[in-house]
Amino acid sequence: MNDLCCEIGFKSINHAGEQLCGDHVDVVEQEDGSTIIVLADGLGSGVKASILSTLTSKIISTMLAAGLSLEECVETIAATLPVCSVRGVAYSTFTILRIMQNRTAEIIQYDNPHVILLRNGENFDYPKQETSIGGKQIFRSMIRLQEDDVFIAMSDGCPHAGIGIGYNFGWKREDIISFMEAMNLCGYSAKVLSTMLVDECNRLYGGEPGDDATSCVVRMRKRVPMNMLFGPPSNRDDANRMMSLFFAKEGKHIICGGTTSSIAAKWLNKPLRPSLKFDGDIPPIATLEGVDLVTEGVITVNRVVEYAQDYISENRRYDEWSNQKDGASLISQLLFEEATDINFYVGRAINPAHQNPDLPINFSIKMNLVQELSAALQKMGKRIKVSYF
Which residues contact 141 (CB under 8 A, 6 or more apart)? Predict the structure, then answer.
């Protein structure tokens, strides 16, 4: 295992008029540290296509994770998928990307647009070996990974974008490559890159997609630790232990909460300087030597949770926090875009002002926020560790 990790992001848009997407992405983490990503595109669109793609991605990812061969996966798919009464065929195209211990990538492609690999910021023409399994033409590739490699998998709804509107024959592969090379120069995360690609497809479709379109981006990057302290300990005698463990950790340090930051300032023997700048409805930040970011507690973290839940779904609020300087936006930038491994140090002290009389008396809004934020960050592919005091 090296110090690289794979950052995964994907987004889909539905065929105009359909409530379900005919594409499906499945991600499975294996015990040996490997990751299997499957992007499946069901035949047609709507409910049938959704069933086909979901079955395909689940079967392939589960069987590969269990150590079965690709041949067995394809045979199982052929025997399992229902037959379309209209077209007389039953299949789902698929792209498999297996990241093995962050050292090697195996790419397996069947009838989907070929995966684009950006290396050193430019398109890299990786080798492909053609084979036939169950009468299906399969392309396989093995690639030694490098830092900042970006893999872009997509369904055929992406190159079909703009047919009859902006382009005669759709958005050509070389045009997609040029677009993604330019976006990649900005250092965006995998989630943002996938969002930008699909949003551009939607624009080329004129807001009325003629096919389901999905993009899945995998970006290889170095691990970046981050530490976040939220709330004072329930036992005041634990304050020094909490602070020593927090500041001993490698990486940037974020402190949330007025009381917590005061304890940290006392422990560091440094002055805590609140900012007088108040923009919007998020309380102002403060500065403390030895700490990268100091913010208010519950109100700020609650907004971060809202941003996190949007980020893992439609990512519509990206512009709200990506360039702003309020506490919630700055935390979001650090946790979503920069960090890969996040250590939470959470104090269990109860603040009566945060308790809702309609809820059980021991219920803590703070604890709930930490759980929701941790769950969202894990869905982003972050490694999370929570320590309570």
Answer: 105, 106, 107, 109, 126, 127, 128, 129
